[in-house]
Amino acid sequence: MGGxxxxxxxxxxxxxxxxxxxxxxxxxxGGSTIWCRVVxxxxxxxxxxxxxxxxxxxxxxxxxxxxxxxxxxxxxxxARRTYLExxxxxxxxxxxxxxxxxxxxxxxxxxxxxLWYERARRLLPHDEDIEANLRFANLVKQxxxxxxxxxxxxxxxxxxxAYFWPxxxxxxxxxAAAFFAVFVLGVRWLFAQTRPGALWLVGILLCAGLSVGxxxxxxxxxxxxxxxxxxxVTAAEARARSGPDLGQTEVFVAHEGTKVRLVRQEGGWMxxxxxxxxxxxxxxxxxxxx
Length: 290
Fold this sequence. Notes:
By secondary structure, this protein is an alpha+beta fold. The chain is built from nine helices and nine strands.
């Protein structure tokens, strides 16, 4: 892409340009308009930045289409490599992660496939295709997830699932709608010629409660997301030990595709916990964070 060439203004026309400058308070120095030059320079830099961003986006779209063509042709390994190049370019998209998960799964990389399905689900919760492929991949892996409990355990699991079910966009929309309703009802209450009845006040309080509840819901979810770190075992197997050293006792073995919760890191070791609560130290290179 060719560069932009900025041509100077002839000396005999600089005075006229300054007099016609649309920016108030510009400073003239030596017959030139400093403020106009600053604005023109900023606009040129903005145009160059936008042009580079569009070029990068166009290149990433071309690579994405190339990866799709490779996948349809059955070259899953090459499709995986090309999808990864798009990811390395900084693209974050649920469709890209989903397709990359498919390419990894088809090329025999089960752990990576589950990893990208999980990442896609975080960007696009409740998507049927992502959920279906992730369930199937979890059925294929060697380690099984804990079975659903009965009685009180099932009730707690259902409540936790309901707590995490709404997306952040849905909760934000609920907060905005409730807050707007409080504003409209409050304005109507203040400027009404006759005071509205108790039902109007109940509506204001209800909408205010919804807005506060939605805000607290989003806040607690964001706090949980910031504090919870999860990873997928992407090596064939990972041996967990009682301490961050190869000489420590082996506690359990996790195989490719198993999801673990990260607790802390010491050197090249990660303290992890399984869904059943069992914990141990794993080599960091066997894990990839979601």
